[in-house]
């Protein structure tokens, strides 16, 4: 085509967002590009804060009809971007906590399945049912007891009595626990006095009659109480009392009332709905079946079992008047389920709720949805697609990535996995370090990326464990009748493919250790009697999206005190609370101290712009006149942690915690960074650093969930030092992990679940020294090392 301009690359010129050093990169269109580098080197700044942000801004500000005349988002710090296309972010951070959202609804598979049931039922029964009749989200079809959730809350006896070894006086029954003058404790005192029950008796020693009085008595009893309210006022009151369990069960009937739920939630657990047995639907809906299966049975089948049922359906209606419609619906259903099976999530079911999935599972389901998308010409951004995957699962992600490209799309993946990177058309490696000294392009040659298959593994020196934790006859989810031993004061790694049972085992270990008794297993023994468990996962830090690194590390109170004690602050009457970001006073009220403002849109993800009132500085101008060692509080919050040691030298409560953060390779982040801005790997390492920096007098059992996920090999080396330091201090560490080199270097013992998933998994096929497990023909590692 003469005169045509070939647009082969997305060209980014002069990018200087965050720590980027005015870099120039070209990303090939309709190709597969990997961006890699150490933590904090600028990967997210380039892809998310520059390319993706500009794509969003251009889309918003150029909507048809010129709906927005004002500037919606700030322009990214970049000279120019040429040939930019609409970008779609397919990350592992999918903030969908709605339990009604399932794999079926997210992938659209449930729509086709429900339509199929309506079509065949109407044909067979002469009815005119709609597709929504088979939906648990339809108020006319869902179970009346659980409202279509398949679960209900029940009072947990373990939560009510967490420790049977405690005496009544020491709070063995949580419902009666409180200060000596509280209404709860005085109720227990009066009941015990009336019925001659010894307050110093352990719960395990109570007679059946005494348990009936305190826990299960259904008839209310009137007693006279004298107690103090939380405000210190003495009250005399006649109250009607039942057993603690019965009173909680009565309150459970009003669980939809927020105040009631808040008051009893600590005693509740979820279990399968007693009315619908987890089907979520009324019996009138379940009465209709296709090839002897109702819709609940089909939605609860593992995806890899659906082929057999759909084959029966196709054969049964092949000669009917609706065979064409049946075939079309089955094809739409199967193309989605087959894509998910190809991405190694075939062990899941359509009915599995999205909040219950791991980040990797959610991302793979979302990738499957995009493989069925009719649109092309998009830029897909994949955030660490190999994160949390066993090496045997990597090839399926590579195939899916290439399928997206084959459909006429551009794929940009932030990734560290050598095998995945080696399949890319182009690599952009940033570095050479994280933080202010990073932000340079140091490599754009795929061939320079070392492949994992070429690595030579160095195994840790053998250490013989002295003591073991033992879990006998574990029965939970897909683990059936398994006995497990875990060495104490050693490092144990748990491995296996996705869905094989790793997280299930860790859940059993955590619950048994924390409670000191067997949960989901027949027997549990631990000679050290340790009950302190620190589960360090990759979930966001903090209780709210407003949480910052400073508040999570518990150093911000100390910092605010230091500023309030300066001469300028004292003269002007500023207190520590004036420097708080959580309450009105010195903070900017326009952004409530966050430094940015959120733009909520019904049809696109929320966007954030710098606060126009304080220009991102969080505080009123008069507060920013207060300085500690020539730094404002906003300067402190914005500076990399590695630059703060000189400022807080000698302030032990602050310095020691910041040092732990720096030692683990996160010196480039700032104290003011919001929790939602941290990657899962950064959040996990922040948790680990906080745990390391916290003073403790008792031993812990640390459980780490895939700590190397999303880390460059240089970051992993820092992590290794921290984990080995914990072991040297006599701690017990249990790690779910997939990185072979990391496992070889740090683990003393390896438990491997093998290559089967779901109901076919749940079995430990090899255990012992890593070098022996790697060579075991039954293990998931055999043939990979």
Automatic annotation (TrEMBL):
Pfam families: UvrA_DNA-bind (PF17755). It comes from the Bacteria. Keywords: ATP-binding, Cytoplasm, DNA damage, DNA excision, DNA repair, DNA-binding, Excision nuclease, Metal-binding, Nucleotide-binding, Repeat, Zinc, Zinc-finger. Residues 459-785 form the ABC transporter domain. GO terms for cellular component: cytoplasm. SUPFAM superfamilies: P-loop containing nucleoside triphosphate hydrolases. It is found in: Cytoplasm. GO terms for biological process: DNA repair. GO terms for molecular function: ATP binding; ATP hydrolysis activity; DNA binding; nuclease activity; zinc ion binding. The keyword Ribonucleoprotein does not apply. Gene3D superfamilies: ABC transporter ATPase domain-like (1.10.8.280), ABC transporter ATPase like domain (1.20.1580.10), P-loop containing nucleotide triphosphate hydrolases (3.40.50.300). Belongs to the ABC transporter superfamily. UvrA family. This is UvrABC system protein A.
